[in-house]
Amino acid sequence: MWLRWVVSNVLNQVAEQKLRQVAGQGKQAVDSPQGESTEEAGRVDPPATCDLIVAFALNLEAGGLIDRMTNVVTTRCQSFVEHTGMIGDQRVVVAETGVGQAAAAQATEDLIRLYQPRWVISTGFAGALTDDLRRGHILMPNTIVDVHAKPLSVGFQMDSQVIESTRGLHVGALLTVDELIRTPEEKRDLGSRFSAVACDMETMAVARVCQAQEVRFLSIRVISDGVDDRLPDEVEHLLNQESLAGKFGAATRAVFKRPSSVKDMWKLRETALRASDRLSQFLIGVIPQLTRD
Fold it and tell me: Which tens digits make up the pLDDT trace of 249-258?
């Protein structure tokens, strides 16, 4: 889970091009591709209904699925960014809600009001809380828990034979947390206390809104960091910097102190892009099953 935070809020903000120049590298930055996307500042005509909303927190997570869509139109709305397009013959809205429960709840309420969907999928990255889940594995939670409220059950259940035959697919409880969980010790403690196998920062909020609005809900998460994964020391130091200038200064010092640290940072970005692609592959297989029932 910290992986998306590092890539979105540190590497991007610290100016990737400057990092490459300091390190003497000539790599070209890889932005989340938009394919055939066009961008609109806002919507003039009332939107048509759409059966399926796929809600991510960040473009970093959504990019893999957006890449696989056609006829994409991107619209920046007040509480979210939406990408409306086609997956096969199915019209889908992919939304970037922002990080955290408050942002996810507001965006979900607005999306349901606009589109009256039959289904909402809360998806994106998650951090493992047990040894069984590793990077690139997929979690389909059967229960959503958080530290404040009673657990919520997820109504949609995948066939047990499909689960057993699909490598890297897990079913279990997903814990929604309010802050970044960094250390293996914290992860294992949360997993034990809440009987959860992974954690994220939005799903409970989306689930509550869907329950209140009587909209069918599903969560699918890709594991971006394992329970024992630790941040490189230089990245940990970056996280402790509050200002952009502080982050850039820490990044520059890290590169001069240990030039290979820039490779560690780029590896984190590449890991995030692979996770987004893995998640999109799984979503492409699930979405037709939801929209045909």
Answer: 555 555 555 5
Residue 238 covered by a domain: no
What integer pLDDT is reported at residue 267 of this predicted model?
75
Q: How far is CA 217 from CA 95, 106, 153, 206, 275, in A?
A: 15, 16, 10, 8, 22
* CATH number of the domain where residue 127 is located: 3.40.50.1580
Q: Is 2 within a domain?
A: no
User: How confident is the model at residue 154, as a pLDDT?
Assistant: 83
In a domain? residue 77: yes
pLDDT tens by residue, 136-148: 999 999 999 988 7
Is the residue at 8 inside a domain? no
Range of the domain at 59: 30-228+273-288
- When divided into structural domains, the chain yields a total of 1
d(CA 23, CA 35): 30
Whole-prediction pTM: 0.77
Condensed to tens digits (0 to 9), the pLDDT of residues 129-188 reads 999 999 999 999 999 998 876 788 887 666 666 666 678 899 999 999 988 787 899 999
